[in-house]
Amino acid sequence: MAVAVTQAPARPFARPKSEHGFWSWISTVDHKRIGILYGVTAFLFFLVGGTEALLIRLQLAGPNGKILTAEEYNQLFTMHGTTMIFLVVMPTAAAFGNYFVPILIGARDVAFPRLNAFGYWAFLAGGLFLYSSFLLGGAPDGGWFGYAPQTIGKFNPGHGIDFWLIGLIITGIGSLTAAANFIVTTLNLRAPGMTLMRMPVFVWMNLVVSFLLLFAIPVITVALFELFFDRHFGSNFFNANLGGDPVLWQHLFWLFGHPEVYILILPAMGIVSEVLPVFSRKPLFGYSVVVFSGIAIGFMGWGVWAHHMFAVGLGPVANSAFAASTMFIAVPTGVKIFNWLATTWGGDLRLKTPMLFALGFIGEFTIGGLSGVTHSIVPSDYQQTDTYYVVAHFHYVLFGGAILGLFAGVYYWFPAVTGKLLDEKLGKIHFWLIIIGLNLTFGPMHILGLQGQPRRTYQYPKGMGWEMWNGIETLGAFIIALSILVFIVNALKTARSKEMAPPDPWDARTLEWTIPAPPPAYNFAEIPVVHARDDFWHRKYTEDENGRLVRIPAGGADEASGVTEHGGGGTTTAEHDDHGDGHGHGIHMPSPSYFPALAGLGIFIIGYGAIYHWWIGAIGGLILLAGIFGWGNEPLAEEH
Amino acid sequence: MRRGLAGRLRRLRVAAIPAVLVFLASCASHAPQDSLKAHGPVARKEDNLFVAVFIVAALVFFLVEFLLFASVFKHRHRPGRPDPIQVHGNTKLELGWTVVPALLLVGVAFPTIFTIFDLAKEPTKNVLPVEVYGHMWWWEYRYPTLGISTANEMHIPTKTPVRLSLRTIEPGLPAAKGEDFAAGVIHSFWVPPLAGKQDVVPGRVNKLTIQADEPGDYPGQCAEYCNLSHANMRLRVVAQTQNDFQAWVVQQAKPVVVPGGGDAAAGYKLFTGRGTCIGCHTMQGVQGATARVGPNLTHLMGREKFAGDTFDINPENLNRWIHNPSKMKPMRPEQGTGMPDLVDTGPHLTDTEINQLVAFLTTLK
Amino acid sequence: MQAAIAPAPHTPAPGDHDYAVTGIDSRKLGMWGFLASECLFFGALISSHLLYRARAPQGVKLPHDVYDIPYTSVSSFVLLMSSLTMVLALAAIQRGDHRRLRLWLLATAFLGTVFIGGQVYEFTTFTHHGVNLSSSVAASSFFLLTGFHGVHVTVGILWLMSLVGISLRGQLPAEKHLQVEIAGLYWHFVDVVWILIFTVVYLVPNHH
After folding, report:
1. Closest C-chain CA to B179
2. Is the ipTM of this complex over 0.85?
3. Model pTM?
C-alpha cells in the first residue's frame, strides 16, 4: 500500500463509519445487507404487482366487467408484467446472489462492493421512477413488451410510455453492473481449492445469468433508446410510414426477451439444485450434467427469440428454424428435471417447507415447460399465440417455477441470514395454499386460450363460454393472495420470536452453513480451503465401500482444510475478540460509502429531466458526477 | 402432519387439475371461438398437429409427475431409516434421457415443418381474394374481384379458399408523402374455427388463407394488443352457400336507397350534410362519400352487430352510440382514432337529429 | 525523474482486496466484461443501421449521398493516432515518467476532441444537405449509432482528463499503472468500434 503518496482525505470524502441505523443502510457496501435490501424491496414490489393481478382478476371474473375502465386495465396489466419481471423476480434472484454467492465460494465480499450497492440503488431508482407515473399522468399502457408502433408518440402521446422506457433503462444499468460484478467475483474471488466444478450449482446458475444479462441488457437498451428517440427527437425507427419497421422493435426486444426468461428461471433452478440434495441426504445427481445443461440453455437461449413472433409473417423458413431451435432447448431443460428426480430417488426425503417448494417447482415447472413445447409447434401456435394459453404457459414457468423456487430459497436460507427458522406449520399451509391457488388460477387458462380468449383484453362478452373458468381463476388468485398473507404472518412472527435455530439446522452441504448466523461482516474468520464439492458435507460425512454415509466424529477438525467445525451459532475464542466487523482479526472489510446512493439519486433525477425539462436532467447529471467524483476520490479504506 | 397417503393423493389431485382441465376443453360447453373445433381445413391441420403433440406432452407430463410422486411416497423419511446410498450419477441414464427426448422432438419436428410450409403455400384453385384492413378498432374488408367493401362481418362462400391480404391503416391520421393513408398499429386477424391468426403489420402485407366447410357464423377478434379498445375489435366470418353468397355480393354492390320522406329522409340529409358523417363513412351512390375513416354503412342493417362486431344493431344501441360513441366503446377521437362526440363537439347534433339519423340508418339493408 | 517501479514483493492472498484466481486483476476483468456488453450495444445499433441504411422517402438524401469519405478518413486517422498516444501514456507511467504520462494523456484527449469536433462539423454539414435525425430512417440509425459512439469518446476524454488531474495531485504513482491501463482498454475499444463503424457504415456501399 503506497501510504506515503496519499494525503489525508478531505472531510467530505472520509468514509462513513456508521454500522447501525438508517444511514448505515444507505451507505452499506456489505453484500449481505445489499442482499437484504434487494430482497425486502422486491417483496414489497411483489405485493404491489400481486395487487395489480387481483384487480385484473376482479375485472375478468365475469363478462363485461365494470370494475376497471379500459385505460385502467391496460395500465394495470402493463405494470403487473413489468413489475413482476423487472422489480420482483430479477431482484429476488439478485438478493440471493448478493447474499450467498460470496459466501458459497468462500469469499468475504464481491469484487466491487460500491458498484454492488450502486446496482441496488439503480434498481430502487428505476422502480420508484416507473411507479411515479401513476401520479404523473398515468402509468404506461403499452404492455410489458411495448410493441411499436402502438407505443410511438403518434399513437401513445402522454408520458406513460416514457416512464416505462426510462425506468427500464435505469434498472438495466443496475442489472448490468451487478452482472459484471458477479462475473468477476465468481471468477476471481473463489477460495483456495474452490475450482469451477466444485462450485455450488446456484453459483453456476448465477454466473450463467450474469453473462446473459451482460449481453442481453445492451440490446434492449438500444431498443428503448430508439423508441425514446422516435417519441421525442423525431427519428423514425418504428414509424412504418417513414420507412421504419415495427418488426425491428420485436427483434431487438425478443433478442433480449428470450434470454431474459432464462435469467428469470435459472437462479430458481440453482436454488432447487441446492435444496433437493440437502433434503434427500444424497448428492445432486449428475452435477456436471446439470451445470452443463444450464450453460447449454444459456447459449441456446440466444437462438430462439423469434418464437415469440411466429404470427408476424417472417416466412416458413424462419418459422421452421426457430421451431426447431425452440424444440431443442427443451432437451437440456428436461435433462435437469430428470437429474432432479434422480436426486430424490433413493434418498431419505425430509419433507420440510424448503423441500416442498423445491418439489413443487419440479411438478409445476414441468407443466409450463411442456406447454412451451406445444408452442414450438408453429401451426398450432398460430392458434395459441396471444391467447390465455400463453398466459398459462408463462405463469406456470414463472410462478410455478421461479416464484416457487425463490420461496424454497427463502425458507431454506432464512436461518442462514437470521439465525431463526420460519415456522414449519405455517410454511406448509403457505405451500399447499399456493399450490391449490396457482393451479386454480393458471390451469384453466390453457382451456380459455384454446377456447379463443385472447390476452390483454379488458373485458370479454357474454356467450363465449368463458365465464366459469374466469370465475374460478379469480378465486384461485385470491387463494394465492391468502397464501402470501400466511407467509407474511410467518415472517413477522419469526422476526419477533427470540427462538434461535441450532447451527446447521438442515444438516446441509455448503459453506454458508459453516459460519455463524447472522454472519459477521467478514463472513469467514479464515478463508476456507476447499477440498471437494459440497466441502462442508464431506467434513461431516464420509462414505463406506457400499456408498453409505459414515459420520465423522464431531469436533474432529480436518486439519488440512484449515477450518474448524465451529460453524452455525458457535463461537471460538477468536470470534470473542471480534465485534463482528473484523477489527479483532485484523480483517479489513470495505468501508461504507454514500456515493453509490448519490449516483443512484443522480440517475433518478436525470430520468425526470428526460421527460420534463432539460435543466432537471442537468441537475441530476451534476449529482451523478458528484457521486462518481466522490466515489473515485474517497480513500479505499477508513483510516485507523 | 399431512404426510401420509392422504397428503400424497391430495398433491396428485391438485397437480393433475391442469391436465384434466385441458382434456375437458374439447367437451366444454358452447364456446363459439373454440380453436379446437375446426370448421375448415386450415384450422383442422393446425388442430390435428396440436392434438398429436398434446398427447405426447400429456404422456410426458404423467410420467414426470408419476416419478415425482412415486419418489416422494417411496422415499420420504420414516424413523429408523438409514441414510441413503450416495449416488453421484449414471452416464447411461444421462445419455438415455438426453437422446430419447431429442428423438421424440425430431419426430415432432418433421410434421411441424411440413405443415408450416403447407400452410404457407399460396392456394391456386378457385381462390377468392379479400383485402383486410385493420383500423383502430374495427375491420374493413374490400373484395377486389367483386368491387365491394364492408366492415367487421366478412361473408365468404363455403368450400372456397379465401386468401386474405392483411394491412393496417389509419385514414383518420395524416398520411406520409407518397402514401395514400397513414399506417396503423399492429393487429392480428383471428377467426379460430377457421384458421390460426396472422398479424397485421404496418409496412408489410401478410397473407392468410381461411376456408369454411359449411355455412355458419364464425366469430373471431383482434389478437394483437392495439391499445385502448383491443378487446372490442371483434369480427365474424359468415360462410354461405355459393348462391347465398352471390346474393349478398349483389346486395352489397347496390348504392344507397334514398328514403322518400319522414325522419329517414331528414336523417339522410343530415348524413350527407350537416352531420358530417360522410367525412368518415362511405355511402355508396353519394358523390364523394368514399371515406374509409369509419366503416362503410351503406348496408349496415345486413350485419348482426356494429362497432367492431360488438353491439347488436337496434335503434336504442344506434341512438346511444351516436350520442356518445366513446362511452360505449373507449376510443380516442381527439387523436384521430375513433368516432368523435357529435353532440358536445363538431356539428352539435340534437336529440331529434339523432333520432332522424337512426331512422335513416335502420333503412340501410 | 522517479525510479522505475520495483518488482512488487506482495502476492495477493485469499481475502485480500487484490486477490485474483484468474491472475487478471479484478478491475481489468471487470472492464473486459463491460466491453463485452458494449459489443452487443454497438452490435444492436449497427444492425439497426444495416437494416435501414438504404431507406429514405422519395427525393430525400440518404447519408450515403452526403458522405465525404476523404474527410472522415482523416478524422478516423486522428482517432487511430489517439490510440497510439494512449499506448505511449501507459508506457510512460510504467517506467515512472509522470510528465510524459500527462503529456500523452493530454495528447490522447486532444486528438479525441479533434475527432469529436470533426464529427460536429461533419454532422452540421449533413443537416444542411437535408440529412438529419428525422429525414429518413437511414439517417436516424446513422446519427444514433455515431452519436452514441461520440458520447463514448466524450466520456473517455473526461476520464483521461481526470487521470491527468489525479496525476498532477501526485496520486497516480507508477504502481497504480493499472488505472491507466484500464482507461486504455476502454479507449482502444472505442477506437476499434469506430474502425468497424467507418468500414461498415461509410465504406461499404449501398446496394440499390
Report:
1. C57
2. yes
3. 0.94
